User: Fold these one by one.
Assistant:
Number 1:
Amino acid sequence: MDNKELEFITKNFLGNKTLQYSKMLQGGIINQTYLVALRNTNTSKYILQKINTNVLRNPQIVMSNSSRISEHIEKKINSNKELFYKNFKIYPCEKGDFYYIYSDNSYWRLIDYIDAKTVDSKNVNTRIVREAGIILGRFHTLLSDISISKIQESIPNFHDTDLYYDRLLICAKKKPERLHKTIELFNKIKEYRYLVDVFLNLKEKKLLPIRIVHNDPKLDNILFDSEGKACTIIDLDTCMPGYLTFDFGDAIRSITNTASENEKDLEKVHFDLERFKVFCKAYIHKVKSFIKPIERKYLAFFTLLVTYEQLIRFYKDYVQNDIYYKIDYPSHNLQRAKVQLKLLEEMLMGYEKMKLACKAFNTQ
Ligand code: GN1
Ligand code: MG
């Protein structure tokens, strides 16, 4: 995408403005993201994103959800000035939609650029972990009273771990080449399948409340300001009805990893139980007024489940020759799966301690 095209698309959201510069940003492994700077505007910097419609097949729903959520958050922070949360504005295009369809049929959106940064896994420390726990708790609090009926499913079955497992089995039959070379990992996935049964039981009995949650609050989606305070959670693509426990698990999955999700050296990958405790304490403190006892009870379990789910998803994408996640080298998805497996196995070793920690903070 060249500057002329980016300027053309931006104009559809902001009117006749001149592009000063643009920069492609790395980060997410789904959408294509650009930082665009304009001349003579108040805000001057924006995030322009091409929505990956192979993954987000219904961009209309994604954008209707995101704009409603952002409006809800805006109202809440305006009515309580003490609430520390940076909301980002999502811009409508000339036609009034919160997306613009370019001539090649690609879908684009424009949001405010927030002057804050993600934290690299190498730089995670106790304060960062605590801040992440606080901001996820605050995000859930902000959305705890949004009307569920206003928000639709942007990706159906997004956290159906059972379905990911079944799809992997189908894929294994259709595309056995890569699977045969990595049979040990596949067998490990089968070994831990019992985690899905626990989840299915919870789902069937409808034991967990449905809430509007983020569904992808990994560390890379949390922004920190220049003072190191977590100030917002980005990427509302998957923000839809779901379980709060999945969000907790996903944030933990990423923040307790002593290395990156893409680490090549497995020796560097460990599950850090101390980080789990710090995050858990900060998070529970923020949500204690509305979290249900059954949700508290399963926080540690969902940490295992979401890590297992991510392991299946990366591995399945490897087996199916990498059609979902962006990759940098041929075995990238396999390596990502190995990282999740290592984390899962260390989490399983620490599971009793994790549950004890959750219990301790629950009663405080
Ligand atoms: C994807 O959008 P992005 O790149 O932050 C994925 C998440 C995974 C994550 C793993 C829509 O997130 O579910 O947990 O990669 N999002 C989608 O890094 O599939
Ligand atoms: Mg995303």
Number 2:
Amino acid sequence: MSLIIVGSVAFDTIETPYGRREKIVGGSGTYCSLSASFFTQPEIVAVVGEDFPKETIEFFKNRRIDIRGLEIRPGKTFHWEARYGDDPNQRSTIKTELNVFQDFKPLLPPDYRQADIVFLANIDPDLQDDILAQVQKPKLVAMDTMNLWINTKPDSLLKVLEKVNIYFANDEEVKMLTKETNLIKAGNKILERGPSLVVIKKGEHGALVLGEDFVFGVLAYPCKEVVDPTGAGDSFAGGFLGYLDKVRAINDKNEIRKASVYGSVLASYVIEDFGIERFKSLTQQDVEDRFSDFKNLVSF
Ligand code: AMP
């Protein structure tokens, strides 16, 4: 099968109780593709400026990420700045500079249009819609978003939501979008809009996967030190979809349960260091070892 990932490839300036890092590599598409690369060869669609480091592009290639859909344009790379306090689930966005993403209108390479799985990672919903329209017959479409788009482009976002099978969101976003305080009611309201599955991420409390006749809860790995929570959500989605692509299963409930655990495994690793640093040393064996740890955590 094949998986395309549309999202931001970015510079992030991040402040957490563990320190501050200026303009390190981040972006929803980056985290998601790196996580998915442990299972499959994701095809990325994004744009960066000429200031984006060549070493990172080499790193993507070494991780078997197909970068034919990654455009390099004159101008500056997307830049996002955020600050986290002592609670890793709470963050404030200080700055969002779209830069080269402002007028990005990609034309997908011909074989990307045949993709089986499409992940519309967090990015402008109009761009998500535009790219989805170029994929011929995807078997599975998933999306993510964030508060900025819920606040500024709710209509565009709801239009995309109706076209996807899986909606990944964090608890706050689901409540914000549906104006419901009860998570289950909020999740059900999303299901009424079109998706057959909603994956509600709850930071250090794990995630809840809800379908019409399906519910699965996955823990978050009990991490003592959360150095930088950025990218946990995208890494979850990347692990989840990468695994489904690898096992060629999109409707098998048991595979969906395993995919959720792999999502949580990848998310738990990425937060151990700033930015994408932890991916540089992470091995397939580490991923499998933590998957087994997750099994032990819930068997009694
Ligand atoms: P997460 O922590 O999983 O929610 O994702 C964080 C990533 O999303 C960061 O690396 C940012 O570069 C990226 N990001 C932040 N705001 C936006 C936005 N408005 N559109 C696209 N990507 C964004």
Number 3:
Amino acid sequence: MSETIKMPQTHLASLAVAKSYSKGEHKIPVLRGVDFHVRRGEFVSIIGQSGSGKSTLLHLLGLLDSPDVGEVQLYGHRIDDLPARSRDELRNRVFGFIFQFYHLLPELSVLENVLIPVMIRHSLWDFWKHRKAFREQAKELLNKVGLGHRLTHRPSELSGGEMQRAAIARALMGNPEVLLADEPTGNLDAETGAEIMELLSSLNAQNELTIIMVTHDEAIAQLAHRIVRLAEGRLEAWGEAA
Ligand code: ADP
Ligand code: MG
């Protein structure tokens, strides 16, 4: 009888945390002890009611906030206790973010918005030196998300779905390992939301982009590989995803 030796598999990202917010003298526990792991290439949905702590969980994972107790790990190494500068760099290199309200800069064109991550990452001189290559890369990404015909438009000239596509291109410009999506279809009608989900699913399938998506919409959540649910500050496995 042959025995299979199971190698311990390191998760791409893990989190085991508790987090409260202070309101006056009161401490309000949001995450009471949450354990979450994601493997490379997974597409995971986190569902839960409004106020259940979904955004908080995503912010902790993406180093936008710090846990009170516990830790956040990347490839098995703790990252939440690194010096601020290292955390900024990791956030910029490892994580891409998209949000319900897109957070595009209104005074910049679509193409310029997509260039923001490389402008942040590089010195002014390096950015200037490589600007042509960066612009080409940004255009390619905008083509990929179906916005190749909107390069010089301002965000205010785009539909909601187009704004989210621009935000996705911007997130991809940083070449992230993990895309953190906070209610990415929350402000879109059902049809446009489905199109954005199709785009996310194809990025996951074709580029092995790991995606962690927060949503309160179960039908949207079903499109991921796995669903977890946040309730009363804890995380539980939820139903069967596609
Ligand atoms: P969700 O994204 O599931 O709607 P959130 O993570 O945004 O939930 O918020 C969870 C709870 O934490 C809410 O009660 C919210 O009011 C509170 N909260 C979130 N961020 C802060 C903050 N920066 N300061 C104080 N309370 C906060
Ligand atoms: Mg939220």
Number 4:
Amino acid sequence: MKNRRAFIKNSLGLAAGLAVAKVGQAGTFLGDAPVSAFQFVQEQLAYAYNALEPAIDAQTMQIHYERHYGTYVKNANEAITAENVQVAHAAAIFKEIDKYSAKLRNNAGGAYNHAYFWKTLRAPKADNKPTGTLAAAIDKTFGSFDKFKEEFTKAATLQFGSGWAWLVLDSGKLKVGGTPNQDNPLMKGVALQGRPLLGLDVWEHAYYLKYQNKRPDYVAGFWSVVNWDEVQKQFSAK
Ligand code: MN
């Protein structure tokens, strides 16, 4: 009997450990592995804080990753627990975002958007641009890569106050637009709908230390650090 209890205890512990490991895996952004109580994890950066210089400076990256992003993850998980949210993945929260509190909306959005943002950045590259099927789709939709950059820059600079600029795929079509606060195009009721391919954080905390109020200069620097291989991967994903 004692052994049996110990066995049950161990297997429960093991199961809980596995569930955590699942959520912690990269690629859970849109959720592949159902778990009974979804929690965000603070996703690891694939590069050092200074890797994106000169476009994004090390101090901004460190504060942004550790404090801002860390707080979104912590607060999102608090709200998920408090509101007894039972979903398998983040996308399920966004699909019914109107059911939840402002705390959950803002922080789940923050946790997801930042994780996605980190993933689509890399060390600067000269002549950094998309290739392959994504490049062709961008040319077809916007006229050229330069025209696309203009559209995206407009979305990023015209977004009043805090928010995000996005390139999304909506029913097979590429679209550019902005969302306020920590909203994203997966959220029910948001004007820009679609699957995120590329997102740019235009909150002042993302650029103020280096660029002060010059958001257009930050957006110009951003083009050198976009991880187009990752964006292509998201574009090709079913
Ligand atoms: Mn941010």
